[in-house]
Amino acid sequence: MTGRAWRWCDFAVRNTLRNRRRSLVTVAVAALGTAAILIAGGFALSTYESLSQMSARLSGHLVLGQPAQFDQDEDTPLQHGLDHPLDLARALRADPAVRTVLPRIQFSGLVSNGEKSTVMLGSGIDPDSEFSVKGPFLKVVAGDVLTSASTEPEVMLGEALARSLKAVPGSSLTLLAGTTDGALNAIDVRVRGVFATGTPEVDKRAVMTDVATAQRLLVTERVSTLGVFLNRMADTPAARRACAAAHPTLAVQTWLDQAAMYKSVRALYDIIFGALGVVIGVIVVFVVGNAMAATIVERTREIGTLRTLGTAPSQLLVALSLEGVVLGGAGAMCGALFAAGVSLLLYLVPVQMPPPPGRSTGYPLVVSIDAGLYLAVTAAMVVLAMAASAWIARRTVHRPLVAALAHT
């Protein structure tokens, strides 16, 4: 910074300190506005991140299936299923970006305890890989998770479904479903565990079993889809292109294509927090503008005197704009420090949020600290404060000298 520029900045700082109470109020409003935007934005970013990770864990970063699997209804179970899934999975695992490939069978039918039958929505999974790769994507409330080491067909039930059937780990149930030939088939199973997804409607119908048991029930060797889990989520676009090129007859979707909840929540939050940012920005502009207006009115004769001594209007406009930069910058820095402190405090002292609509379990409140967000919001506050100051000052610095010197 040159000596001349430093003098202008020093001049701006000294002028803001001439009325410290007014400057303090302006800085406080800018700080609160900055903190509010950063905390709300950090909450939105953490929500996006958690929802994207949850969606990728549930479906896989990529999902492979027949094109009709994603846009047509099936007349019979696995009508649009994948043939030779083991060979296809082996070929997919050859890509170094792929961590693992998990088969999935989706089916529906009835589950009965001998006295009562109810509708089920079943999932056939590879239990050993499923639970090791996905991590804690569901909460086991009784019993244990499925394992391929079991010598008899086993299932896990949703919490509400288990309660409806009065089933506990060790209970015997019967699964009934239509086969790929249109016939009806049944198979006896043992309950290994009870789980909760946090979504009551899902827990009322969910049944999970291993792929082999589901294939025996449906009398087929097909699977519905293959979920491809990558080493990094950032590799998803490149992996999709490579996979589509290697298997042109199959449809390849990403986790985002499968994540309806993620897209709806993000669209809603973008609108809410975008409107919040606009409102806070308008408030900051008005507060800074009001403070600068009062300051400039009090200094009208001073401005006239400076112009008489040869100071150009453009120089005065720059000086007054710098005062806005000082006020807005100080407020933005204080607000950023406060928001960062709140975010760190939430990591040290967890706060549990209430369950959102459609779910029965809450989640921890997390506010992300994103460098890009902090820089963007801080810069926006400074620019808004500078623009408000320049807008207010532009008329006074161009006021006729006689009128400025005669101002009382």
Main attributes of the structure:
408 residues, two-stranded antiparallel sheet, 15 helices, 12 strands, single chain, 55% helix, elongated, alpha+beta
Polypeptide structure, described:
The structure is a single chain. The protein is an alpha+beta fold. 55% of the residues lie in helices and 19% in strands. The protein contains 15 helices and 12 strands. It has helices at residues 3-16, 20-59, 67-71, 85-93, 127-134, 159-165, 200-203, 211-218, 236-246, 255-258, 260-298, 300-308, 313-348, 371-397, 401-405; strands spanning 62-65, 98-112, 117-125, 139-143, 154-158, 172-178, 184-196, 206-210, 225-230, 251-254, 352-353, 363-364. The strands form 2 sheets. It has a 6-stranded mixed beta barrel with strand order 2-3-8-5-7-6, surrounded by 4 helices. Strands 11-12 form a two-stranded antiparallel ribbon. Strand 6 and strand 7 (184-196) form a beta hairpin. Helix 1 (3-16) crosses helix 13 (313-348), helix 2 (20-59) crosses helix 13 and helix 13 (313-348) runs antiparallel to helix 14. The longest helix is centred in the first third of the chain and has 40 residues, at 20-59. It is elongated, with a radius of gyration of 32 Å. The protein starts with a helix and ends with a helix.
Distance between the termini: 37 Å
| Poorly predicted regions | none
Average pLDDT, all residues: 84
Structural class by helix and strand composition: alpha+beta
What gross morphology would you assign? elongated
How many beta-strand runs? 12
Number of helices: 15
